[in-house]
Amino acid sequence: MEQGASAEQGASTQAASSDRAAPAGPSTAAPTAVCLGESMAVLLPDRPGPLEQVENFRLSVGGAESNVAGALAALGVSSAWISRVGDDGFGRRLVGEVAARGVDVSAVAVDPHRPTGLYLKEVGGSTGARYDLGPGRSRLHYHRRGSAAAALSPALLDDPAAVRLLAGARLLHLSGITAALSDDCLALLRVLLAERRPGRLTSFDLNWRPTLWLDRDPAVLPPLLDAADLLLLGSDEGEAALGTGDPQALRRRFPSPATVVVKDAARTVTALERDGTSVTEPALAVEVVEATGAGDAFAAGYLAGTVRGLDQRRRLRLGHLSAACALTAHGDQAELPSEAVVAALLNASPRDWAATRFSAGGIVSPVLPAAVPPGPALSATAGPATGGGASDPRPATSPALGAR
Question: What is the pTM of this model?
Answer without folding.
Answer: 0.85
